[in-house]
Amino acid sequence: MNDKPWYAAFGGRGPDWVIDLVVAPLCVSRLRAVVDGMSLTGFVRLEGPARKGIFSDAVGDHLWFIDDQNEAVFGAHCDRATLDACPVCHFIAVEGAALRIERRGGGHDRDDPGVTTAAENDVLRAVLAESAVGLARWAVYAGGDGCEVQDVATGHTKDQLSRFLR
After folding, report:
1. How far apart are CA 16 and CA 90, in angstroms?
2. With 80 as the cut, is the pLDDT of residue 12 above it?
3. What are phi and psi for residue 141, nearest 5 degrees?
4. Contact yes or no for 104/144 (Cβ under 8 A)
5. Residue 25 has pLDDT above 90, yes or no
6. pLDDT at position 75
7. Could you give phi then psi for residue 63, rounded to 5 degrees?
8. Residues 93, 63: contact at Cβ < 8 Å?
9. Which end of the chain, N or C, is less surrounded by CB atoms within 10 Å?
10. Alpha helix locations (H) across 11-157?
11. DSSP for 133-161, written as a single string
């Protein structure tokens, strides 16, 4: 993966951009460890112990990061309604076997990629580089704010995802 933003192929679709990665069941703990061990500049970690997921209905100890510009909006209350009410934000989450990176409203740095884009790309690079994390599937899509959801790309392998990101 080069330094091109992961959302470069969206070409005006949106305004919300999402990439979802689902790992094989045996890789769940390694996915979490990879993301949890990263220093994500421009993001603040929010705790999600024994809570319902933001994008899944699963209750668990979720790993959530919100861009530091929206830390005050979320505070200790992180849920889907709060995320949906935030017109522009960056969100990285590990919930069970899934990793989601979501840019609502295209994100703060969509026109001039900065620290949040770099951190999002770093997460994707780390997951792709980790041999103990096997992908079951991945999907990239746009939509939101009354716009129909549009699939941008989907696949099942790290190779396919790497090619998409180049």
Report:
1. 10
2. no
3. -150, 165
4. yes
5. yes
6. 65
7. -115, 115
8. yes
9. C
10. 28-36, 71-74, 80-84, 115-129
11. --EEEEEEEEEETTEEEEEEEEESSHHHH
Q: What is the mean pLDDT of residues 64-92?
A: 76
- Other beta carbons within 10 angstroms of residue 59's beta carbon come to 13
Interatomic CA distance for residues 56 and 102, integer angstroms: 14
* H or E element that contains 23: strand 16-23
Residue 36, classified by CB atoms within 10 Å of its CB into exposed (0-12), middle (13-18) or buried (19+), is exposed
Determine whether 133 is exposed, middle or buried from the number of CB atoms within 10 Å of its CB (0-12, 13-18, 19+).
buried
CA distance 54 to 91: 10
Strand, coil or helix: 127: helix
Radius of gyration over alpha carbons of the chain, in Å? Answer: 15
> Could you tell me the sign of the dihedral formed by the alpha carbons of 77, 80, 86, 88, in that order?
positive
Q: Which residue has the tokens 């099942």?
A: 156
